[in-house]
Design brief:
TIM Barrel; EC 3.5.4.2; zinc ion binding; adenine deaminase activity; binds 6-chloro-9H-purine; 8 strands; alpha/beta; eight-stranded parallel beta sheet; 47% helix; zinc; binds zinc ion
């Protein structure tokens, strides 16, 4: 039985496996510039964040209808459930879809269909032949693309209004895409507006960008969690603050290797980060591209870093502590 865990750093568009990409392309009459799934997999030779993002945005062309988004989320939740994920806080990139003429309603309604289906333990109990199967509770976090303008982010928040009511599917906002040259402060206004709407706030920082971006995300955007945050280790004062304030970091070890933030997994600073007292969690980021889902990331760090069973349990526990679940919901999910 895999450890029960929450996944807090997962881009739903990054769960698009080559097989599903080809199936959706066929359904939508789109020709992909790859002969087959093998050739597409071979294109996954990233050297940095930008070379990954180019492929990630290009492949989104196959996502057009509510059904496409429902199928995408359904496939992710099936894999996540099999790896012990009990709760997932799922990022999506509305601007990347709107740029292709797909509005936020299509994305949220489509994703929502799959999330509702997996939210109840009963719905998949029937499919697993009556065995006790867990559902997955889910929340959506809408990300702004940091290489787009601040005005575009504000327009996106406005367009999302129908889905932002308390109890609605979108619980928070995030910040992703190309980091260097796009500091968090660029998005001060939209984060203030999001806070006024009662939304939770997170941001990618310190993945490829400097430690100062982590500080800025905390101080200017008021984020409650830092996505990645790896480079905080270059700044002892920042580490001390993150420890003191117990700011959760959503680390993605396999992503860090594929995007060359670390050379090999054995060099990953996760053990040092845990030793320092940082509230670390282990997540998958873009699992179809980076070689594994949440459980695969746990297995990889166990093997490469020799983490003890106690440390792995602490990481799983941290994932619930760092989640946006209320206490009673958290207890049920664990
Ligand atoms: C992303 Cl790994 C990563 N970093 C920044 N933005 C992203 N969007 C999807 N994956
Ligand atoms: Zn990410």
């Amino acid at each position: 039985m895999p450890l029960p865990k929450a996944e807090l750093h997962l881009h739903i568009e990054g769960t698009l496996e080559p097989e599903l990409a080809f199936a959706l392309a066929a359904r939508n009459g789109i020709t992909l510039p790859y002969a087959d799934t093998d050739e597409l997999r071979k294109a996954y030779e990233f050297t940095d964040l930008q070379s990954f993002l180019n492929l990630y945005y290009g492949l989104m062309a196959v996502l057009r209808t509510e059904d496409d988004f429902a199928d995408l989320a359904d496939a992710y939740l099936a894999r996540a459930a099999a790896q012990g994920v009990r709760h997932a806080e799922i990022f999506f990139d509305p601007q990347a879809h709107l740029a292709r003429g797909v509005d936020i309603g299509t994305v949220v309604e489509g994703l929502g269909r799959a999330l509702d289906r997996w939210g109840s333990p009963r719905s998949n109990e029937a499919e697993s032949g009556g065995e006790a199967a867990h559902g997955i509770s889910t929340q959506l976090i809408m990300c702004f693309l940091r290489d787009e303008s601040a005005g575009s982010a504000l327009e996106t928040l406005e367009a999302a209004k129908p889905y932002l009511a308390p109890g609605g599917p979108i619980v928070g906002v995030g910040l992703d895409s190309a980091e260097v040259g796009h500091p968090p402060a660029k998005f001060r206004e939209v984060y203030e507006a999001a806070a006024a709407l009662g939304l939770r706030r997170v941001a990618h920082a310190g993945e490829e960008g400097p430690p100062a971006y982590v500080t800025e995300a905390l101080d200017v955007l008021g984020v409650e969690r830092i996505d990645h945050g790896l480079r905080c280790m270059e700044d002892p004062e920042l580490v001390a603050r993150l420890v003191r304030e117990q700011v959760p970091l959503t680390l993605c070890p396999l992503s860090n290797v594929r995007l060359r933030a670390v050379d090999v997994l054995a060099d990953h600073p996760l053990p040092a980060m845990l030793d320092a007292g940082l509230l670390c969690t282990v997540n998958s980021d873009d699992p179809a591209y980076f070689g594994g889902y949440a459980g695969d990331n746990f297995d990889a760090v166990r093997t490469a870093l020799g983490l003890s069973p106690e440390r792995l349990r602490a990481l799983a526990r941290n994932s619930f502590t760092a989640s946006f679940l209320e206490h009673d919901e958290e207890r049920r999910a664990r």
